[in-house]
Records
---
Amino acid sequence: QVQLQESGPGLVKPSQTLSLTCTVSGDSVSSGDYYWTWIRQSPVRGLEWIGYVYSNGHSYTTSSLRGRVSLSVDTSKNQFSLKLTSVTAADTAVYFCARDPVRGQLVGSFDYWGQGILVTVSS
Amino acid sequence: DIQMTQSPSSLSASVGDRVTITCQASRDISNSLNWFQQKPGTAPKLLIHDSSSLETGVPSRFSGSGSGTDFAFTISSLQPEDVATYYCQQYDILPPRFGPGTKVDLK
C-alpha cells in the first residue's frame, strides 16, 4: 500500500526558507514510473501545483515560483523534498506531496497524496 | 497557462438527487481532465481521469463526460458520504491547473 507523509516545520518566519520532506512507503522514489510532486492549497489560491522531481533528480517548477523553489530526491531514504526561499504570508498554505504516474508527455494525474501539512508564514 | 472555471461554486441537494457540475477550460485540452473529491481535513482523492474513466474502486454513481473545453461531472444518486468539494483539473499542458471547486452538501 502506497503512503506518502509530509514532514517539516509548521511555522516559518517571513523571508526565511520553507523546507519540507515527503517520505514514501510502499513504493520507491527510484522508480522511473512516477513524478514526485508538490501541491499546495490555500483559501486565496486554491489548489496550486508547485512542481515535480523525477528519480534522476530532474525537476520542473511552475513559472510563478521558479527561482524560489528547489526540488530534490534522496533515494537512500526514499524521500523527496521541497525548499521554498524568501517566503511571505502569501506562501501560507497546506502543502501536499503526491505521486504522479508518468504518462508520456502528460503531467498531472495525482493518484496518491500525503495527508498534507499546514505551513504558516508569520513572525 | 490554462484557466479552469467550475459552476456552480456550491450546491445543496437531497439524498438520491442527480447532481451535475460543469467545468470549462480556457482552451482545448482534449480529454486531459481529472475530477477530484476532497473532504474536510483530507487530501483530494482522484475519482475520474481522462475525462470519463473511473478510478478503480470508485462507485459507479460517479461519472464524467466531455472533451475540448467543456466537461461535466455527475453523481447519479447523491449519498450522504458524497458531501465534499469537487475539483476539476487539466493536465494537457504544463502547469496542471485545478478549478476553484464546487462544494456539495445536503439539503
Note: The mean pLDDT of chain B is 97.
---
Amino acid sequence: GQNIDQPTEMTATEGAIVQINCTYQTSGFNGLFWYQQHAGEAPTFLSYNVLDGLEEKGRFSSFLSRSKGYSYLLLKELQMKDSASYLCAVNLSDTGRRALTFGSGTRLQVQP
Amino acid sequence: DAGITQSPRHKVTETGTPVTLRCHQTENHRYMYWYRQDPGHGLRLIHYSYGVKDTDKGEVSDGYSVSRSKTEDFLLTLESATSSQTSVYFCAISNRDRLDSYEQYFGPGTRLTVT
C-alpha cells in the first residue's frame, strides 16, 4: 500500500525545537511535501524535498533520505502560533495517479 | 494566495438528497483535485482532473462523481448523500506543467453534514 506514517500528536515548549518524523514506502517515490494546517483552515505549503538532504526556510527545515523512506520537519524557536497539524505528503508515481498521498497528520501543541 | 474559492462553505442536507460542491480557480492551473478530510484519516483523494473533460478516480471515489467543463470550475456531486459522506471537503489546484514541483494550493473547504 501507500502507508505514510507520522506521529499522531506531539507537545513542545515555546522557544524550543521540535522534530516531526514521517516514513513512507519508497517504491515510485517522486517528491515529499510538508503542509501546515491550523484548526478549521486549509492546509498551506511549507516545504518540498525531492533530493536527499536538508532544505532550510527560516525557522522551518525539512530533511529527506530516499533510501530510508524517511523525512522530518524541524521547527526551531517555537512560537504559540506554530500550534497546528503538520501533514506529510508524498508523490508516488506508481499509484497511477498524478496526485499526492497524505499521512494522517501530526497535531503539535506548543505550550508556554 | 492562490485564487481558489469553494461553495457552499457549509451545508446540511438529508440522507438521499443530491449535493453538488463547486470549486472555482482564477489561476488557470491545469490540475484540480477533490479531497475529503476526516479525523484519523487525513486528506484522502476523491477525484482529480488533468484538463477540461479529463478526470480520474482517487482512492475514495465510490458515491461521488465530478465534472469539469471549464478550466476554472471543478464540480463534485454526491448523487445520493449518505451519513458516511459527512466530512470536510477540500479542493486543490496545481500547476503540474512545472516539472520541479507538484505543490498543491488548497481552497478554504466545505463542511458538509448529512443527517
Note: The longest strand of chain A covers residues 29-37.
